[in-house]
Amino acid sequence: MVKKLTGLRLIGAATVVVAALGIGWWSTSGEKSAADVAPVPVGPSVKTGGTLLGTVRSEPRSFNRLVARDRTSNLVSLLLHEKLVRINLATQELEPALAESWSADDDLTWTLRLRKNVTFSDGTPFTSADVLFSLAAVYDEKTASPLSGGLEVAGKRLQLTAPDPTTVVVRFPERFGPGLRVLDNLPILPKHKLQQALDSGTLRDQWGPATPPSEMSGLGPFVLADYRAGERLTFARNPRYWRRDAEGVPLPYLDGVALLIVPDQGAELLRLGAGDVDVVSGEVTPEDLPAMQRGADQGRLSLHEVGVGIDPDFLWFNLQAGNGAPSWRLRRELRVAVSLAVDRQGFVDAVYLGAAAPVAGPITPGNRDWFDTQLVAPPQNLERARQLLAAIGLTDRNGDGQLEAPDGTLARFSLLTQKGNAIRERGALFVQQDLMRLGLGVDVVSLDGPTLIERITSGRYEAAYFGTQASDTDPATNLDFWLSSGAFHPWNPAQEQPATDWEARIDELMQLNVRSSDPLERKRSFAEVQRIFQEEMPAIYFAAPRITVATSRRLNGLRPGVLQPFVLWDAATLSVGQ
Amino acid sequence: MMVPGGPPFVLFVIRRLFFALALVFVASSVSLLLVRVAPGDATTQMRFDGAPAASVAEERSRLGLDRPWSTQYRQWLAAALHLDLGMSFRYGRPVAPLVVERALNTGLLALAALALATLAGLPLGVLTATRPRSLLARGVRLGSVMALSWPPMLLSLVFAAMAARTGWLPLGGMRSPMAAPDALSHAWDVARHLVLPTLALAIPVCATFERLQSRALAATLSDPCVTAAAARGIPPSRLHFRHALRLALTPVTAVYGAIAGGLLGGSFGVEIVTAWPGLGRLLYEGLISRDLYLVAGCAALGSALVAVATVLSDVVAAWNDPRLREQVGS
Predict the structure, then answer these.
(1) Which residues of A touch B277 (CB under 8 A)?
(2) So what's the pLDDT on residue A7?
């Protein structure tokens, strides 16, 4: 599971004002083939040619996806490279890509049959050797790829063999519920271009931003034509791309894609409203939604409601041992009281301006396979919250309206959040206001991204309100979060032994979930994980945003998903009209 | 009397150049050290993403972050003396050409803004000084006070919104993706993109020049030498523009260096909003990714631009005002 910090928003408030002025389930056995996948929903009416204009907020850190995991580098990788199998972001299901079909030989072994007559953009044939090379490159210690963790199962590596040029056999180190979904993390790179760098231990330095486009090749729908640092990335159609639509028309439909680098979201939306670009990098924020709606009503752009986001922000207390926290701050009752004290509908209305859904936990209604409809967000209950706080000794002893701990000190904690991210800052303030009604003091501290992350990773904080970006919906690909040994187990990361009984139980259930290939068993085990999570509340969730994306009206073939990049994840099937 | 080009004047320029070098040294060194000691580093995100400790350690070693700050600084300084400003962590490119490329863009923007502010601000200052009670002068004064209170970033957002409504100007960037490749079309395309950020940067500076020029000229007009010249029958237009204006230019030329520094600072927000690929944006990206060599390089180039502008403004002021030349000579 890849997790990323969502983007910084330095000048959000000013932006808002002026923007308003302007305008599958994995089959556990048997064979899966390309025929099982819904064909691209287009036909002879599609207009081919033209250039799609989009925006990104920042430069790509590298054209080498193995070393860069920022949002722009990921998008560039989706345009330039291809995978064996991929997760369809619209359906959240696994579908064939370079592997046209696959079958399970046993619980641990899969055989994938590769497409024939596929070539890289420079004309070199694609074979199973490229697949083996790509995985070896990810695992190479000198490459130190951030993708390697997402391609391991229980900390162990996959074994790949290639009996012939069009067959790859994947052997898992142990049973793995999500199966081949894990391969969505593996971009296939050209062995003929990069083998020497891998051998010499310099792969990490290859395909940096200064690399001439002619030195790179890929299997994706586009090739990099030009990169002007600080200005734009230009991609041209890869004439050797392997895909065709249902009518047999070669993809991509577009002649090219130009991504303008526009750091400010307000400026991005102004450009979209003015018809300068077809698609912007992110979703429409709640503040911008009315202006975008007016633009849509006036026929200047199109709005697409995609659904509830799957990676809501959350609040957690630092539960790491030895951090000097008073005992009450480590108690479950405090966490449940905080959850009960916050009016989630009010949170939706005030923080997201209505463009969100109240949620009870990390799995939101946007996650089609794993959302548990039985778990509902608790209504605000201040009386119960007071009782819970009193049970851990937090009462107003001197009648000043503020709670005191049994030792007489004020019951207060600091809450770190991300400076410049308007929604997070508003969310933290909303929590502060609601907890003030209980007499529980909260000091909101907004920090810039690197400083905030440094404080969290070094354990020097009391509580935080923050978020992550998901790359898959299957919880078994997110073990770092769920397991007590996980590096991204925010409240108490990387435990040698589970610190609590309930974490030990979640560990057991998640191991069961990961190792099972029975969908029903996996659902059952994860339902219990979610129930324990809601009881213990190590992380408190209030709302998940409703994702709306805005595009130009000339853009056709959209299949937006709730994961980034919402629209351009399958740019090969997009087309532009008049 | 000392004239530009004479020995005392050359010494003055040399002294200012030494000062400029010291400024570049201090600004870049302090920037590098501050980013080095700030919380977080270029590997913080890796750690947050759950990268194995060994990978993080290897990356820190590769970037030199495992060395003491004093060692890292000494090594950087030694290389910087040979104009090697190190490699950018974020871009994987040598810092020197990267910052020069962006400094040229920022320089173009700052020059255009200075030129516009000068060409508009000085005549308006003359107008408000010579006809202070006219309706036009009152309007200009009011406009200047308002413009002084508008930060360039906000102005750039307002202009961007206006451009979005009218479609008269490009909304941002430096070049159109679809621009024709010939030189003339290219120049025209850049010029069109330059208008919006230039206006946003120039308007507050223009207001500053208007206010300074107006007050200086009003003071000069009441000077006995000007009164004497008027008594000798020199026509008002000649008196204002050939005699009084030249004397009154001194305060404006004296602040040119500081204004240039302000323009570089103000360009930061404007470059973000208008997607102008300049030094301010690069510095911001360097700061948020804790790219210390990039930040130091941006600070070096930025302070060099300020220093050059200050030297030039001093030279122009000395050329323009005989009294300053005497002071420089002494």
Answers:
(1) 228-231, 261
(2) 37
Nearest CB to A149 within list B50, B273, B289: B50
* Chain pair A-B, CB pairs under 8 angstroms: 171
| pLDDT, position B132 | 85
- Tokens read off for A293: 């709606």
**Digit-coded pLDDT (tens) for B182-233:** 888 889 999 999 999 999 999 999 999 999 989 888 888 888 887 888 888 8
- In the beta sheet, which residues pair with residue A168? A112
Spatial contact of A442 and A391, defined as CB atoms under 8 Å apart: no
Secondary structure (3-state) at B278: coil
Bigger pLDDT: A250 or B186? A250
> Beta-carbon neighbour count of residue A174 at 10 Å?
12
User: Burial of A406 by CB count in 10 Å (0-12 exposed, 13-18 middle, 19+ buried)?
Assistant: middle
Both tokens of A568, joined, read 């351009």
Helices (H), A352-418: 382-391
Give me the helix-helix angle, B183-221 and B152-166, nearest 10°.
130
pLDDT digits (tens, 9 = 90+) for B106-120: 989 999 999 999 999
The distance from CA A148 to its chain's CA centroid, rounded to whole angstroms, is 17
B278: nearest CA in chain A?
Answer: A230
Note whether A11 and A19 are within 8 A (CB): no
The label of the residue with tokens 């990335």 reads A233
Whether A62 contacts A69, CB under 8 Å = no
A456 to chain B: closest CA residue: B48
CA distance A168 to A157: 16
Q: Which residue has the higher pLDDT, A45 or B272?
A: B272
Q: Is the pLDDT of residue A4 over 80?
A: no
For residues A435 and A339, give the distance between their C-alpha atoms in angstroms, rounded to a whole number: 10
Q: How many residues does chain A have?
A: 578
**Residue to substitute from B41, B45, B289, interface A, most A β-carbons within 10 A:** B45
Which region holds residue B120: left if phi is over 0, alpha if psi is between -120 and 50, else beta? alpha
Those residues with Cβ within 8 angstroms of residue B199's Cβ, 6 or more apart along the chain or in another chain:
B116, B155, B159
- pLDDT one-digit tens code per residue, A506-561: 999 999 999 998 999 999 999 999 999 999 999 999 999 999 999 999 999 999 99
> Which of these, A156, A150, A154, lies nearest to A3 by C-alpha position?
A150
Task: Provide the β-strand partners of residue A85.
Answer: A96
In this prediction, residue B56 carries a pLDDT of: 82
Question: What are the φ/ψ torsions at residue A557 (nearest 5 degrees)?
Answer: 85, 20
Residue B154 makes CB contacts below 8 A (sequence gap 6+) with A14, A18
Flag if A146 and B46 touch (Cβ within 8 Å). Answer: yes
Residue B94 or B261, more confident: B94
DSSP A342: S
* Cα torsion through A527, A530, A534, A539, rounded to 10: -170
The pLDDT tens digits of the residues spanning A297-335 come to 999 899 999 999 999 999 999 999 877 889 999 999 999
B233 torsion bin: left (phi>0), alpha (psi -120 to 50), beta (else): left
Query: Nearest Cβ partner of A450 from B39, B175, B284?
Result: B39
> In the structure, what pLDDT confidence band is assigned to residue B93 with cuts at 50, 70 and 90?
confident
**CB neighbours (10 Å) of residue A201?**
12
Query: Cα distance from B129 to chain A (closest Cα, Å)?
Result: 36
Phi and psi of A485, rounded to 5°? -85, -5
